[in-house]
Please model this.
Amino acid sequence: MLFFPYQDDNPTRTFPIVNWLLLALNLWVFLAWQLPLERNELEAYFSIFGFTPDSFFGQLSDPDPKEMAWEWCTVFTSTFSHGDIFHLLGNMLFLYLFGDNLEDAMGKIRYLLFYLCCGLLAALAQGLADPDSSIPMVGASGAISGVMAGYLLIYPRANVRFFYWLFIFIGTICLPAYLLLGFWLFTQVLALPESMEQAGGVAVAAHLGGFGAGLVLTPFFKQSGVRMFQSGYSRPFSRNIRKMR
Model:
């Protein structure tokens, strides 16, 4: 069974150059820096460029300027690194779907700052949830969770197109963004207790931290002429079903 979003019916007024640069940078880091590494080299990469809570908070008790500077850098280097190709592609799909419209609503510079702020607050949320963890955290999903929250506040009723393949049925279906993003948020809240008990795995606290950051920051980062809770280019619920031969 396959079921995933691939497009929204919400065109932009300007070319989303910042969002495309973010997509390209994430892909470049993975393909040029991570993919050529052997397993032991990749683990060393994560320990250097990933966000590690015990290292981050440990340097606060005995501050050294160089160490402090690097630990704060890992907040952002971790945001542009990924665990594997599926981790990367899943994150990039949601950034591609929702980032262009949010850039349109905020403007180029504000959108970039918003993205980085959400990534920062997502990392800190994960670190505060488990400050003694020595496991490096990587991935753009905290920042992208903030992007999803911003999209939900500004375009909750914009249509998102899904592709599905269920046994012999294949087709597309359109659903409003608030259903997709609301369901995603619900699954994250349910997954949080289990994720806190596991060593490693999905950093759900970072997802929720980034989403919360997006909800708080969006009203301040959007352009003054942009209204909250727009309809986008929403149309009534629709679907397109074909039986596979």
